């Protein structure tokens, strides 16, 4: 299909109806609008309305080199298909991608105005990231945050008007609830078998139940350059202690737990962070020494309660722990 020359410049303000007349599309079809009369895809951001659906990541990167845009889908994990496909396929289909931000309403009416930000292309190296968000019912889910690169420089005043995104390019950790019901959420560092996972989950639930007065959460660690996401086990917010649970108190499991905790704590920036291993029973004396020398704490089930041993604070352990 042929496309009319795109006349808008960054900062121009229009209504959706005006866009439809000149370039096609739809007045009220959501935030991602492929035109049916031109080779264009339009995306619209409106933080005032989007926040209630977890659209909290829209905005420019700190250096203005990329624009982050949250995909479509108000409930559950957002999908790469359906309403989000026009962004993913725009380059392959020869479509130009244009972004707009909310700019108030037409005087004396409820018609919304849209400020043109500029033309973008989807970053071929890192098209999107999955980020945690809440849906309309308050359930934790993931949203697609597309990374869009400007075709030409965006004026500084437009960047300031649009604002900046909370998506970081460097590794970062986000505190999330213990209960995660998202099938697309961050993965654990190891992929234990189903039975082991269930046993670890039961152990964690029992431990939390015994820690009266303590509040627990988890850390989702995003590693953008590796496209990796790690989900820790429980974090005791009162004691600043991060626990890694294992279903078996054997050597290979404890060695795995030590490595995971050392990996996690590099990215969890909590003052006086402590790390510990949670087990279904007391490990052998040599394995307790291993955790002691590594500067890690230990918690284990003993009859109907749990024994909690804090991390080693001796000189030797402190050097290893730092």
Can you tell me about this structure?
- This is ScoMcrA-like SRA domain-containing protein.
- With 322 residues, this protein is of the alpha+beta class.
- It folds into two domains: 13-167, PUA domain-like (Roll), CATH 2.30.280; 176-321, Trna Endonuclease, Chain: A, domain 1, CATH 3.40.1350.
- 22% of the residues lie in helices and 30% in strands.
- Strands 1, 2, 3, 4, 5, 6, 7, 8 and 9 form a nine-stranded mixed sheet that branches. Strands 10, 11, 12, 13, 14, 15, 16 and 17 form an eight-stranded mixed sheet that branches.
- The model is unreliable at 315-322 (pLDDT under 50).
Mean pLDDT: 86
Distance between the termini: 62 Å
The fraction of residues assigned to DSSP E strands is 25-35%
Order of helices and strands: EHEEHEEHEEEEHEHEEEEHEHEEH
Radius of gyration: 24 Å
Give the domain tally: 2
Q: Give me the count of strands.
A: 17
Q: How many individual helices?
A: 8
CATH topology descriptor of the largest domain: PUA domain-like
Regarding CATH, which class of the largest domain?
Mainly Beta
Q: By helix and strand content, what is the structural category?
A: alpha+beta
Shape: elongated
Q: What is the helix fraction of residues, given as a range?
A: 10-25%
For the sheet with most strands, the description reads:
9 strands, mixed
CATH architecture of the largest domain: Roll
Domain ScoMcrA-like SRA: 15-155
Organism: Microbacterium ureisolvens
InterPro entries: SRA_ScoMcrA
Pfam families: SRA_ScoMcrA
């Amino acid at each position: 299909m042929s496309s009319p020359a795109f006349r808008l410049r960054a900062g121009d303000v229009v209504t959706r109806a005006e866009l439809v007349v000149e370039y096609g599309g739809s007045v009220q079809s959501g935030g991602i609008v492929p035109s049916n009369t031109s080779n264009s895809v339009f995306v619209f951001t409106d933080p005032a309305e989007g926040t209630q659906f977890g659209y909290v990541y829209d905005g420019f990167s700190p250096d203005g080199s990329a624009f982050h845009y949250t995909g479509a889908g108000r409930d559950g994990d957002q999908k790469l298909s359906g309403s989000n496909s026009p962004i993913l396929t725009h380059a392959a289909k020869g479509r130009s991608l244009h972004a707009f931000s909310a700019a108030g309403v037409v005087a004396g009416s409820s018609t919304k105005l849209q400020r043109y930000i500029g033309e973008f292309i989807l970053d071929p190296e890192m098209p999107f990231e999955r980020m945690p968000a809440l849906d309309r019912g308050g359930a934790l889910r993931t949203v697609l945050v597309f990374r869009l690169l400007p075709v030409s420089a965006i004026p500084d005043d437009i960047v300031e008007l649009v604002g900046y995104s909370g998506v970081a390019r460097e590794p970062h950790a986000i505190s999330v609830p213990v209960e995660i019901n998202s099938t697309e959420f961050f993965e654990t560092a190891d992929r234990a078998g189903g039975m082991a996972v269930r046993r670890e989950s039961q152990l964690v639930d029992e431990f939390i139940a015994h820690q009266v007065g303590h509040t627990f959460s988890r850390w989702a660690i995003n590693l953008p350059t590796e496209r990796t996401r790690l989900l820790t086990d429980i974090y005791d917010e009162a004691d600043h202690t991060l626990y890694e649970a294992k279903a078996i108190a054997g050597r290979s499991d404890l060695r795995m737990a030590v490595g995971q905790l050392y990996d996690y704590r590099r990215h969890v920036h909590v003052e006086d962070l402590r790390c510990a291993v949670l087990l279904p029973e007391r490990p052998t004396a040599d394995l307790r020494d291993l955790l002691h020398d590594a500067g890690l704490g230990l918690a284990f089930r003993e009859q109907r309660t749990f024994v909690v041993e804090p991390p080693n604070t001796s000189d030797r352990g402190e050097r290893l722990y730092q």
